[in-house]
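Protein 1 of 2
SEQ + STRUCT:
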Amino acid sequence: MGVSREALRPNAASYKVIGCALRVHSAIAPGSLERAVAACMKHEMTTAGLHIEQEATIPLVYDGIRIPLAYRADFIVENCLVVEIKCVAAILPIHRAQVVNYLKHSGLRLGLILNFNVPHMKQGIHRVINGREADL
């Protein structure tokens, strides 16, 4: 019989993921490929004891038809947080729109866009909220 643990709320999961991102960013230089960063993040989040789903599929219901593989998030963490990894010059409105869609169609309320192509990781952290901050 496995040991159960209390599920993390979105803000608590976000805090832990940001800690993982800080460690990864310190270890690998800006200019890395998203695939490499995602592999490092997977390792860090797993080591931190977080439940993760990598390349998580998010369905879309369109005109009454369920399209099961419409979206693919880089990570869903603790079943409450969408995490998108980027290695770009700047986070654009389209990146935020992508995460808003993931949140809307998954029913989740909090997303992080983590851009690793920055001098200091703090500059690369972008929160996207679908709902009220108080609910996180």
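Protein 2 of 2
SEQ + STRUCT:
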Amino acid sequence: MIVVSDSSPLVALIDIDQVSLLPRLYERVLVPEAVWRETFVQGEGRPGREEVARAPWLERRSVVDTLAVRALQEGLDAGESEAIALAVEAKADLLLMDERLGRRTAQHMGLKVAGVIGVLVDAQHKGMVPAIRPQLDALRDRAGFRVSDELYRRVIMDERE
């Protein structure tokens, strides 16, 4: 399975100590240069970043189609634009992205998209996470990740917690 990640899901999973789910779920994750810079260069010194940057399951890759990246940057940031372009180039099975406009753009381009909550739910369904509520709480409290009350309740209800 080819998976490309934007910085948001990667950073959130690092911040809640669940980044080890990624290689267990997907084996290998590709990140474009802009996501690498956002996550590991600008985030240098933050807990967990150095270990993940050296992880064998994380592959840093340059986007070839710079014209597509420039076109996508009309409405998206560099990381989102490169992640979408890389997912298209690599014929990714899944793009990990949380930002709403980026997700819509990627879906419009025919990409399958999941966010950090989707990763956690998938991990729970596969028995890697015993309960989703503590993960959502950690996203809000430890990672500072915005999870609306409505989404929080819906995920808890869907997962029957």
